[in-house]
Write a structure and sequence with these properties.
It holds the Pfam family DUF1416. The protein is built from no helices and eight strands. The protein is mostly beta strands. The chain has a single domain, classed as Sandwich (Immunoglobulin-like). Strands 1, 2, 5 and 8 form a four-stranded mixed beta sheet that branches. A four-stranded antiparallel beta sheet has the order 4-3-6-7, with no helix packed on it. Strand 1 and strand 2 form a beta hairpin.
Length: about 100
């Protein structure tokens, strides 16, 4: 269901035909390290990945509405995204 490439996601490495949610976490315009959670449309925990050193993350998920939650020391921020079947959804989360 999910996975993160060490060092951050590269669009060239996306699995063709997979529904993908990826992006980066920033704080004051700089990459932020921590964790990113994927919550389903009811708010239930689905997956969690660490960010890379450059604040990047990636999930492979089902089509639908998701909440992407960034958890970094001292801050949390949520973004709602709509993932399309076989598509790439990019999200930037500033904490």
């Amino acid at each position: 269901m999910c996975g993160a490439k060490p060092g951050g996601p590269d669009a060239a490495s996306i699995k063709q035909g997979e529904t993908t949610i990826q992006g980066a976490v920033t704080r004051d315009g700089e990459p932020a390290t921590g964790y990113v959670r994927l919550l389903d449309s009811t708010g239930e925990f689905t997956a969690e990945v660490p960010t890379s050193a450059t604040g990047q993350f990636r999930f492979y998920a089902a089509e639908g509405t998701w909440t992407v939650r960034a958890l970094v020391p001292g801050a949390t921020a949520d973004r709602t995204v709509v993932a399309r079947h076989g598509g790439l959804t990019e999200v930037t989360i500033a904490v």
